[in-house]
């Protein structure tokens, strides 16, 4: 079943679209920029570039899909009605509209700020990265400024500031991150000679990105643990 997903660059939409791809479900996304388009294309989605208020783009996007999942923070009247009309004209049998504000509830409203977070934007596909592995809950990608022959970052898709916060809030997700660390280390051929896993946490450790990430380093002797 081919599904059109709107809002795929949003917080809920990116997770939903990512999960569909992980389950090898064919998806099409409607995104606004060429960068977003390239990122979703690289992940295996069919892509239409355009705005929900652009009738031609919407017409193209709904043609030939079996279902539409419309994910928007608030369901804007104009865009949602336009999409529903295009779906009817194209004979799309299923249209699901979800207000993602309502999905998370007011207690999660704060997490909207996470779209300012660099790694959340990598999860959503808005910023490209060289992906090494993706699971339902985690993502592994190459560090943009590698400090060793192999330097991979492993993150949970959900935003937590650091490893201590993650471990206390969601032990299962913390273990998913470690499992991905282990699998990545194995696939990179780091296990036999050894490798290092670092979670910089807070100011003294020099943590620059406030989205928990494991650095997986190896492929050569790594020297002393701390700079001397
Ligand atoms: P921290 O200092 O927070 O432990 O590590 C942050 C890491 O993220 C650094 O090693 C840095 O090179 C990496 N990084 C920063 N920006 C980007 C980016 O846009 N893409 C990727 N792949 N890595 C990044
Ligand atoms: Zn984040």
UniProtKB/TrEMBL annotation:
Gene3D superfamilies: HIT-like, NAD(P)-binding Rossmann-like Domain. InterPro entries: Histidine_triad_HIT (IPR001310), HIT-like (IPR011146), HIT-like_sf (IPR036265), NAD(P)-bd_dom (IPR016040), NAD(P)-bd_dom_sf (IPR036291). SUPFAM superfamilies: HIT-like, NAD(P)-binding Rossmann-fold domains. A motif (Histidine triad motif) lies at residues 211-215. Residues 118-227 form the HIT domain. Transmembrane segments: none annotated. It comes from the Bacteria. PROSITE patterns: HIT_2 (PS51084). This is HIT domain-containing protein. The lineage of its organism: Bacteria, Bacillati, Actinomycetota, Actinomycetes, Micromonosporales.
